[in-house]
Amino acid sequence: MRKRQIKVVIGFLALVLLAAFLTVYKANADKKELLVEEEQQGMQPEEKPVESQPDEIRDEEAQLASFLPDYTSAPLLNTTEIKCLSMEVGASEEQVQLNWFSPSEIRGKTEWKNSSGKVQSFEAECTASVAMAGYYVNKAVVSGLRSGETYTYRVGNEDGWSPEYTYHVPEDTETFTFLVTSDAQIGQSEVELPEETAERWDSVLTRLTDYVPEAKFLLHAGDQVADFGNQEHYELFLEHLALYSIPLVPVVGNHDVANEWSMEANGHPDGPYFYEHFFVPNRSNMAEGQYDQNGNYSFIWGDILFIVLNGCYGHPGESHEAYAAQIVSEFPKVKWRIVIQHYSPYSGVGSSGNGISDDYLAHITIDNDVDLVLTGHDHAYSRSAFLNREKQVLPDYDYKSGGVAVNPEGAMYVTCGTSSGCLYHSIEEDEHLVFQGQPETPSAIRIDITDKELRLRTYLVDSWTLYDEYTIRKE
């Protein structure tokens, strides 16, 4: 009897499963017939009910999803004992300069291979490091780079080599493009851990190099690190794959060099920390400064003269005026002149804080026909009016965002906000500023220069939103 009951149950279950199968089969067959009818009528099969998000929301989500650190390439960075490799601009577009730390006391070199397989080797100057005990600083100039060429390169010697990295030299076109960042200030402890800031800095670098591959270089307007003598902060600032693919223009910030307060607060002795980590072209030998705060530098790329001032030491501004006048006299025929320093003389947060008169920048810009001054320090964005030698606003221009100034007199000052989001300062009004804001997100500036025009566009990097733009035109 029990066996018979079991057979009945099994038979019933089989009938239920068969009925379910026939229902699904019929539904699929009906769906196929509907798809065939739609295709025959030239219709697209309906994939999903119209409940998807608007395009602008999807675009925003895609932007945010792509704003990530480059974890996939990270293993390339730390596979040898070589540390803090950095690639700076050279004196001209045919050069770059490399800087790295190695435990080997043997002079290092860098090997560059072009797309056809030809290898060139460039020897480095090698000195014992003051900043990093047991390591040696290597500095090498690479020359003869060709527009549009792709190179792979490595640094080291027989005691050990770095991984190979790739540098594509942007094509020469009628437009010269470069990027401006500032105040990554890795190690700023008021808000977050250094590693968190470094991850966001990596996301910024990755997006900038992905979105603007035509950029000739990346300028960083000071405060690379929070603590001038902290080796970990330098590693977290420098060791990002994106920085091995674009030359850097580093600027001395107040956090990058020793002073009496920072030596006492951070417990590090005086030393050449900044200039051991960076190798800049045409560095001046200004011996008036204290500690590792000496030296301006300059370079010409394209038809543009860049003058980088070290405004973070206390000797008179007349020395900067003399330096700028000398450099301009050596290259009188360039079409554009740009001056860069860390401190903004017209602060959008009320804290220029350098204790140096801002007269020297007003004199430099007007006496030498400077078109633009780029600064940092404020952790907020601002753009000034055109200012004369007396620091007075010249009123006869359209200063709104998107405006164009034709043959302006005076010079404009633009302060880049923090490009790592390490710390945001509240803005304060300044009579010299015509646009300012605190978006509380990492920002960066794209500058495109032609023979007749300089166009500046400031972006909120996480969403790639245009925040401000302005154009200077020469006719």
Summary tags:
475 residues; alpha+beta; Purple Acid Phosphatase, chain A, domain 2; 7-stranded mixed beta sheet; 23% helix; 25% strand; globular; disordered N terminus
Question: Mind explaining what this structure looks like?
Answer:
There is one protein chain. This protein has 475 residues and is of the alpha+beta class. It has a domain at 172-473: Purple Acid Phosphatase, chain A, domain 2. The protein contains eight helices and 23 strands. The protein has helices at residues 2-40, 55-66, 194-211, 231-238, 260-266, 273-277, 318-330, 359-367, and strands at residues 83-89, 96-102, 109-113, 119-123, 125-128, 136-142, 150-157, 160-161, 165-168, 176-181, 218-220, 248-250, 297-301, 304-308, 336-340, 372-375, 381-384, 403-406, 412-415, 433-437, 443-449, 453-460, 465-473. The strands form four sheets. A seven-stranded mixed sheet has the order 12-11-10-21-22-23-18, with no helix packed on it. The chain has a seven-stranded mixed sheet with strand order 13-14-15-16-19-17-20, with helices on one face. α7 (318-330) links the parallel β14 (304-308) and β15. α7 (318-330) runs parallel beside α8 (359-367). The radius of gyration is 29 Å and the shape is globular.
- In helices, the fraction of residues equals 10-25%
Number of strands: 23
Determine the CATH superfamily of the domain at 172-473. Metallo-dependent phosphatases
Strand order, main sheet: write it out: 12-11-10-21-22-23-18
> What's the main sheet like?
7 strands, mixed
Strand content: 25-35%
CATH fold topology of the domain at 172-473: Purple Acid Phosphatase, chain A, domain 2
Please state the average pLDDT score.
Answer: 85
| Assembly category | single chain
Q: Provide the CATH architecture of the domain at 172-473.
A: 4-Layer Sandwich
Query: What is the CATH first-level class name of the domain at 172-473?
Result: Alpha Beta
Decide which structural class fits the backbone.
alpha+beta
- As a whole number of angstroms, the C-alpha radius of gyration is 29 Å
Shape: globular
Q: What's the helix count?
A: 8
